[in-house]
Specification:
This protein is mainly β. Helices cover about 10% and strands about 35% of the residues. A 5-stranded mixed β-sheet has the order 10-11-12-13-17, with no helix packed on it. It has a 4-stranded antiparallel β-sheet with strand order 1-29-28-27, with no helix packed on it. The chain has a 4-stranded antiparallel β-sheet with strand order 2-3-4-5, with no helix packed on it. A hairpin with a 6-residue loop joins strand 27 and strand 28. Helix 2 crosses helix 4. The chain is globular. Keywords: Cell cycle, Cell division, Mitosis, Repeat, WD repeat. It holds the Pfam family WD40_CDC20-Fz. This is CDC20/Fizzy WD40 domain-containing protein. One of its GO terms (biological process) is cell division.
Length: about 450
């Protein structure tokens, strides 16, 4: 077929005569046919080199001949612009992965700050002291560490003071047999005055520096006083009679409020950091939240929250240092749970079964961690990560239930006392990375001004 016949054939090609909606698209010429026509023209008429008879050669081989196909490819590429072709070389590819990741070279400098060195937690106690005759009684509170870095511990009828600055020990007082034993001790915020609860229902206030009795509070209870808590100049006492008494130590008639809500012995008392809320735990398996901002009366029975989820006595109470309305509580042998409470709403946020009697709780002041001490069967201290409550460490050494714990003023060291008659010191909370100034205690307005004159 020559060029002329291809052209006339194309002109005589009928258009589609159907004028329906679905066939109204415009006619698009067959591009490949046009290219074949151009190539045929270039091979037969447009070749300036004037081969002897290219048409005859092509006609002898036919349109499918190899020579024709080869010449056709060359003709189609002759002086034609390739569609979508790169005119210049493509730009070099961009490196997808930085070289330092694939090589052995150290990572960039700033990435070091993203990884925090894990704190080493010693698995054994730093120091162990003998504590003969310490009472193995779950409901008592016989150990406290004051702001002056002096530890007080009650051994039967005697209260001893251990000065952490020089490791010296001194006897503060020995109570008469008919009045003892000592059932609770608690330092005032000034770190100098110590409250001592007795088996005969009395509470004594002592000046540790002069070793002198300042005052005896009587009449608040009808049984032993097993729990104590300070709130500025208010000393709160909890007794076997189920009463909670607020004593203003600045005035002669010290009893200013009495909370009634527990039916059995009050064995746990803790004021919140703000001093507005008091948590109490009892042998009746109850936790109460009392709010000082509520209307004051001489005898209160109206608590803010009554928490009944524990199934055993609640002695272990600890207010969170970084969230003011978060309280942790621990149940005894029949419960074995640590529970977390929102004290604004009274809601239980979480409950963790420790599989052991919970005797005491302490928060780490520098990290989001909680330390618990336990009774049967392991008699261990357990460090938990909050809020995941993943165990970080278990500290073993005591051979009897660890009933009492106290925290040093800097928040790093914990003292524990157990029924095995030993007092152990653990560097469980480590040393804070940056030492922060200790917040000053609230001004007292001479809280003990009247104490020296009142007996």
């Amino acid at each position: 077929m020559d060029a002329g016949s291809w052209s006339s054939s194309r002109q005589r090609r009928p258009l589609h005569q159907n004028n329906s909606q679905e066939n109204c698209d415009r006619f698009i010429p067959n591009r490949s046919a046009m290219d074949f026509g151009y190539a045929h023209y270039m091979l037969t008429e447009g070749s300036k080199k004037g081969k002897e008879n290219p048409a005859r050669t092509l006609s002898s081989e036919g349109l499918g001949g190899e020579s024709y196909q080869k010449m056709l490819k060359e003709a189609c590429n002759m002086n034609r612009t390739r569609i979508l072709a790169f005119k210049n070389k493509p730009a070099p590819s961009v490196e997808a992965i930085p070289k330092h990741i694939l090589s052995s070279s150290p990572p960039p400098r700033h990435s070091k700050s993203l990884s925090k060195t894990r704190r080493h937690i010693p698995q054994s106690s730093e120091r162990t002291l003998d504590a003969p005759d310490i009472l193995d009684d779950f409901y008592l509170n016989l150990l406290d560490w004051g702001s002056s870095n002096v530890l007080s511990i009650a051994l039967a009828n005697t209260v001893y003071l251990w000065d952490a600055s020089d490791s010296s020990t001194a006897e503060l007082v020995t109570i008469d047999e008919e009045d003892g034993p000592v059932t609770s001790v608690c330092w005032a915020p000034d770190g100098c005055n110590l409250a001592i609860g007795l088996n005969n229902s009395d509470v004594q206030l002592w000046d540790s520096s002069t070793r002198r009795l300042l005052r005896t509070l009587r009449g608040g209870h009808q049984g032993r006083v097993g729990s104590l808590a300070w709130n500025n100049h208010i000393l709160t006492t909890g007794g076997m009679d189920g009463r909670i008494v607020n004593n203003d130590v600045r005035i002669r008639s010290s009893v200013v409020e009495t909370y009634r809500g527990h039916q059995q012995e009050v064995c746990g008392l803790k004021w919140s950091g703000s001093g507005q809320q008091l948590a109490s735990g009892g042998n009746d398996n109850l936790v109460h939240i009392w709010d000082r901002s509520m209307a004051s009366s001489n005898s209160r029975t109206h608590w803010l929250h009554r928490l009944e989820e524990h199934s055993a006595a609640v002695k272990a109470l600890a207010w969170c240092p970084f969230q003011g309305n978060l309280l942790a509580s621990g149940g005894g042998g029949g419960d074995q749970c640590i529970k977390f409470w929102n004290t604004h709403t009274g809601a239980c946020l979480n409950s963790v079964n420790t599989c052991s009697q919970v005797c005491a709780l302490l928060w780490n002041r520098n990290e989001r961690e909680l330390l618990s001490s336990h009774g049967f069967t392991e008699n261990q201290l357990t460090l938990w990560k909050y809020p995941s409550m993943v165990k970080m460490a278990e500290l073993n050494g005591h051979t009897s239930r660890v009933l009492y714990m106290a925290q040093s003023p800097d928040g790093c060291t914990v003292a524990s006392a157990a029924g095995d008659e030993t007092l152990r010191f653990w560097n469980v909370f480590g040393t804070p990375e940056k030492s922060k100034p200790t917040p000053k205690a609230k001004a007292y307005n001479e809280p003990f001004a009247y104490v020296h004159r009142i007996r």
